[in-house]
């Protein structure tokens, strides 16, 4: 081989995109050019280089990853995804404190690459993002984690539960007690509904808040000063939603179901 595998795979955006595209199966040149928005002149030299180094093989008029290429892509793909996540929203990620996230979720931050940062203005600092409200209104199942009391969230959760939406919620004990104190009889009715499951987390939660609704994901972290600045990350990608559901299930392991 004339170049190292890392250099071969990572130094060229065209090669990287090509390998990620081919991980799902063989493709001909026409499909490659259309999917990656490249010309023959732009992509054929990259294909030749990958073929010469045993990463790609050609069968008739189609190109596919070799066995070795498949191994390389599967190992490097999480790095590609993580890099894309950090490069898309660098100011957000490098200002967040994610130290409380379990390592398996840090390693999967690449799943949140197709996300948008929501920075509320001073006049709507304490309001939930409109994108969240819009998705909650049409969702049939909602999971949420919250380590702080927010009357807007409680209000919307209660309204959704009354409409029959299935809800699984994790609160810290302090948040749970605040809801009971502030909402009284309404909280008892809310917590007693058949379509609502409430879990009380034993310790500190790894995020400030997280919501997964049908096809929607929201998460917020403290910043590195330990302050909640109300910046949120939202996404409608399947990978982000699954990341959120998995984090919920993880937090359930250290939570007690309220009966």
TrEMBL record:
InterPro entries: FilR1_middle_dom (IPR013561), Tscrpt_reg_HTH_AF0396-typ3 (IPR016490), WH_DNA-bd_sf (IPR036390). Residues 126-252 form the Methanogenesis regulatory protein FilR1 middle domain. Pfam families: FilR1_middle. It comes from the Archaea. This is Methanogenesis regulatory protein FilR1 middle domain-containing protein. It comes from Methanohalophilus mahii (strain ATCC 35705 / DSM 5219 / SLP).
């Amino acid at each position: 081989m004339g170049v190292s595998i890392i250099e071969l795979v990572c130094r060229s955006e065209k090669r990287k995109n090509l390998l990620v595209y081919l991980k799902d199966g063989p493709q001909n040149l026409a499909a490659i050019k259309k999917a990656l928005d490249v010309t023959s002149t732009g992509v054929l030299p990259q294909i030749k280089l990958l073929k010469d180094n045993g990463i790609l093989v050609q069968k008739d008029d189609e190109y596919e990853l070799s066995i070795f290429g498949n191994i390389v892509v599967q190992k490097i793909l999480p790095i590609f995804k993580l890099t894309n996540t950090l490069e898309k929203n660098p100011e957000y990620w490098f200002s967040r404190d994610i130290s409380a996230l379990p390592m398996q979720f840090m390693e999967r931050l690449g799943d949140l690459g197709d996300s948008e940062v929501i920075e509320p203005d001073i006049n709507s600092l304490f309001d939930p993002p409109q994108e969240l409200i819009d998705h909650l209104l049409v969702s049939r199942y909602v999971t949420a984690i919250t380590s702080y009391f927010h009357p807007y969230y409680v209000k919307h959760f209660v309204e959704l539960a009354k409409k029959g939406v299935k809800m699984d919620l994790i609160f810290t004990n302090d948040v749970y007690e605040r809801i009971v104190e502030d909402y009284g009889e309404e909280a008892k009715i809310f917590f007693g509904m058949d379509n609502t499951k409430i879990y009380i987390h034993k310790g500190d939660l790894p995020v400030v808040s997280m919501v997964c609704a049908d096809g929607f994901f929201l998460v917020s972290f403290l910043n590195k000063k330990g302050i909640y600045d109300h910046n949120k990350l939202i996404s409608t990608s399947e990978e982000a939603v699954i990341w959120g559901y998995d984090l919920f299930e993880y937090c359930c392991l250290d939570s007690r179901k309220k009966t």
